[in-house]
Design goal:
Elements: E1 4-9, H1 21-34, E2 38-45, H2 48-53, E3 58-63, E4 71-78, E5 81-87, H3 89-92, H4 110-125, E6 136-140, H5 147-154, E7 160-165, E8 173-174, E9 195-196, E10 199-201, H6 202-209, E11 212-215, H7 218-223, H8 234-239, E12 244-246, H9 275-287, E13 296-301, H10 310-315, H11 317-322, E14 325-331, H12 335-347, E15 352-356, H13 360-369, E16 372-375, H14 385-392, E17 395-399, H15 402-407, H16 413-417, E18 424-426, H17 431-445, H18 448-460, H19 466-483
Parallel strand pairs: 1-2, 1-6, 2-5, 6-7, 7-11, 11-12, 13-14, 13-16, 14-15, 16-17, 17-18
Antiparallel strand pairs: 3-4, 4-5, 8-10, 9-10
Helix pairs in contact: 4-5, 5-6, 9-13, 14-18
Domain Glycosyl transferase family: 292-442
Family: Belongs to the glycosyltransferase 1 family. Bacterial/plant glycogen synthase subfamily.
GO cellular component, one term: cytosol
């Protein structure tokens, strides 16, 4: 059986450029798919960090004018990933994140920047690079939402398109006045095309024209069909319900491995966990906490937002402290939450520590040294934080939504003894239920024997991409057969 060729199109890619879980997924999935005879090449913008990491590369497409300046497509490799890099300095050679300028405001030309990415990917999909003509195109989130539209309106026979929703709350909505520069026919602007509430909808276009729609967990696939979680797109999704499915994310278990992680001060395994105590000591030192072996160290690695339920954590600080707990936090986001956690840290030195921003090495240290990882999200398409926590033996305390419901099993005593319980789950989402979950986790922690069993259960959970990569491979092949390619 010859390898299936898949063109992945993304706006960020770990370890080259990352703002969230999309980058982790896009970076880990190609390697996992290789075991299933799937060859992946990824289209990514030529941000400064991507260009700096690109190894020997060659120009495979040259474009005199790409919406404001010349561009070229480079074929090359970086961090073990096979890439097509869109080198368009007028669009991507900028400081800041892929989406925002320094200071936090969105780049004003984001519609053009990501329409250009989508258009280039569509050209490659249609054979612009003869050495790699894909059988399937896999797009991710709104930033690549126009790929399916460009391919559909091209009119020629095209490869099948799979689109993955990582978070339906981010939809890529832009003014209708930009339509003439998008390179699409005028009749594409309609209810059956890319029009969305009077403007252009990048994600809407993807959901309209993709052959398969996936989300990053089965529960989230069900949730987005409802008015509560569909964010205005539930009608379209229900009309295409037959092609909607959820495939659970995994993590790269070579990067996230406490036995070999170079970002940890000591290593440990499920059968030899002693090194974890040394990691915990270093974590306390880094955050200025008292290294109290009896205290529960609660960890947070998150965007500080209402979606992530971090207001519940802030309001629950008195409860955490009353239980003898401590808190370490790494994240950035809403100003009121940021200020609130900073105040809590300043008034509780030695018990609460926070670092505003993101630091990959510190994220690994929190996973490796915390006793409990808090993920009380109001909605969570999948979540990778709790998967990393399982791998590192930090017990997840999560809300019963989306991928959290699919990955964490409530750890009552019977479930722990049976080897199935892996964390503490609460529902419905309220302050009372969250604080009740804090009390439950404290009771478990007070029994060292039970806690060790719970940690073993967590660390033995398979959080790799192996099973889910197989599901993606089956999805791709089924689509190829269906389209008669």
């Amino acid at each position: 059986m010859s390898a299936l060729k898949v063109l992945s199109v993304v706006s960020e890619l770990y370890p080259l450029i990352k703002t969230g879980g999309l980058a982790d997924v896009a970076g880990a999935l190609p390697g996992a798919l290789a075991a299933h005879e799937v060859e992946v090449r990824t289209v990514v913008p030529g941000y400064p960090s991507v260009m700096a990491a690109l190894e020997i590369a060659s120009t495979v497409v040259a474009i005199e004018e790409l919406w404001g300046g010349p561009a070229r497509v480079l074929a090359g490799k970086a961090a073990g990933l096979e890439l097509f890099v869109v080198d368009a300095p007028h669009l991507y050679a900028r400081p800041g994140s892929p989406y925002q300028a320094p200071g936090g405001a969105d780049w004003q030309d984001n519609a053009v920047r990501f329409a250009a990415l989508s258009w280039i990917a569509a050209q490659i999909a249609m054979g612009a690079v003869p050495a790699f003509v894909p059988d399937v195109v896999h797009t991710h989130d709104w930033q690549t939402g126009l790929v399916a539209a460009y391919l559909t309106y091209d009119g020629r026979r095209r490869p099948g398109v799979v689109t993955t929703i990582h978070n339906i709350a981010f939809q890529g909505r832009f003014p209708a006045s930009l339509m003439p520069m998008m390179g699409l026919p005028s009749y594409a602007f309609g209810m059956e095309g890319i029009e969305y509430y009077g403007g252009i909808g990048f994600l809407k276009a993807s959901l309209r024209f993709a052959d398969r729609i996936t989300t990053v967990s089965p529960t989230y696939a069900d949730e987005i069909l409802t008015p509560e979680n569909g964010m205005g797109l539930e009608g379209l999704l229900n009309s295409r319900r037959a092609v909607v499915s959820g495939i659970l994310n995994g993590i790269d278990d070579t990067v996230w491995n406490p036995a070999t992680d170079p970002l940890l001060p000591a290593h440990y395994t499920v059968s030899s966990p002693l090194g974890r105590r040394l990691v915990r000591t270093e974590l306390c030192r880094r955050f200025g906490l008292v290294d109290d072996p009896k205290a529960i160290v609660f960890g947070v690695v998150s965007r500080l937002s209402w979606q992530k339920g971090l207001d519940l954590v802030l309001a629950g600080m008195d409860k955490i402290l009353a239980l003898g707990g401590q808190l370490v936090l790494l994240g950035s986001g809403d100003a009121d939450l940021t200020a609130g956690f900073q105040r809590a840290a300043s008034t509780n030195p030695g018990r609460i520590g926070c670092t505003i921003g993101y630091d990959e090495s510190l994220a690994h240290l929190i996973q490796g040294g915390s006793d409990v990882i808090l993920v009380p999200s109001r909605f969570e398409p999948c979540g990778l934080t709790q998967l990393c926590a399982l791998r590192y033996g930090a017990i997840p305390l999560v809300s019963r939504v989306g991928g959290l419901a699919d990955t964490i099993i409530e750890a009552n005593e019977m479930a722990i003894d049976a080897g199935t319980g892996t964390g503490v789950v609460f529902s419905p989402l309220s302050q009372e239920q969250f604080e009740g979950a804090l009390t439950r986790v404290a009771r478990l922690h007070a029994d060292p024997t039970l806690w060790r069993r719970l940690m073993r259960n967590a660390m033995k959970t398979d959080v790799s991409w192996s099973r889910s990569a197989g599901r993606y491979a089956d999805l791709y092949r089924g689509l190829v057969v269906e389209r008669g390619a």
